[in-house]
Amino acid sequence: MIRDITIGQYYPAESVIHRLDPRVKIVCTLLFLVSLFIQNSVLGYGLATIFLVCVIRISRVPFKFIVKGLKPVVILLLFTVVMNLFLTRGGETLVHFWIFTITESGLRTSVLMAVRLIYLVIGSSLMTFTTSPNGLTDGLEKLLHPLNRVNVPVHEVAMMMSIALRFIPILLEETDKIMKAQMARGADFESGNIIQRAKAMLPILVPLFVSAFRRANDLAMAMEARCYHGGEGRTKMKPLKYRARDRWAYAVTLLYLVLIFAVGRFVSFRLWIF
Q1: Which among 25, 139, 140, 223 counts the fewest CB atoms within 10 Å?
Q2: What interhelical angle do 42-59 and 244-266 show, nearest 10?
Q3: Are 6 and 104 in the same domain?
Q4: Quick one: 122 and 230 in the same domain?
Q5: CA geometry: angle 184, 187, 190, nearest 5 deg
Q6: CA 5, chain centre distance (Å)
Q7: E strand map for the chain
Q8: Do 109 and 161 fall into the same domain?
Q9: Do 169 and 258 reside in the same domain of the chain?
Q10: What angle do CA 186, 176, 7 make, to 5 degrees?
Q11: pLDDT tens per residue, the chain (274 residues)?
Q12: What pTM, to 2 d.p., does this model score?
């Protein structure tokens, strides 16, 4: 289960998406996430599916690798679906059993909410899969640069976010090592109910926190030893520059956003209760 978490991991590959400017990928990802909330129709989600599949194919990130990243959110996904399915009222009653009632509105809301949540995870994961931590830091710093005028420490904020993303795979690997060490000593993490499994995970937290603080302290001392300081006056080995492919990416994303908005507002189409 720990190995299935792919949040924050970078997947190196030779693709147009990988070569895009980090600012383009951050902005286009935000626009894609916004597009999932400005429409609520089958055609809109169909268009979002086509767009997402095309981006995945172009990025050359294996689909199995992307699906593996969905496993940690399965519990949240099932909880969201069940809550919307049984608590949302409206329309014709489809199923009624004891105290449980499934209506057309409940079924429609639960299905669309599940699709929206899956696309949110895949869309945001694609950005981290195709963007290195250094590129993500530079892109965030450039996008947030106007906030420097109001004394917001933009460079420090971008650096902290980048380090946090970089630490996720490291801590997951450390957790896996600690779990294997505990299992070699007779610990059982797979049997019992949810509460028993949660209690069995407690012995992992102490060594994990100790390891995390030690790594953070080592990183801070290494940066201080190299006289690291960010912000004004710092030069970059690879400064960010917009190229033709970046402008094309902006144009395609804006065209997709316009189509999503037009479909959601002006196209009337229903498939059963959807």
Answers
A1: 223
A2: 160
A3: yes
A4: no
A5: 110
A6: 11
A7: 93-97, 100-103
A8: no
A9: no
A10: 150
A11: 555 566 667 888 888 999 999 999 999 999 999 998 888 788 888 899 999 999 999 999 888 888 877 777 788 888 888 888 877 777 777 777 777 777 878 888 888 888 888 999 888 888 888 988 888 888 888 888 888 888 888 888 888 877 887 787 788 888 888 888 888 887 777 777 777 777 777 778 888 888 888 888 998 899 888 887 766 667 777 778 888 999 999 999 999 999 988 887 777 666 666 5
A12: 0.80
Sign of the four-CA dihedral 179, 184, 187, 192: positive
- Do 231 and 247 lie in a common domain? no
Number of separate domains in the chain: 2
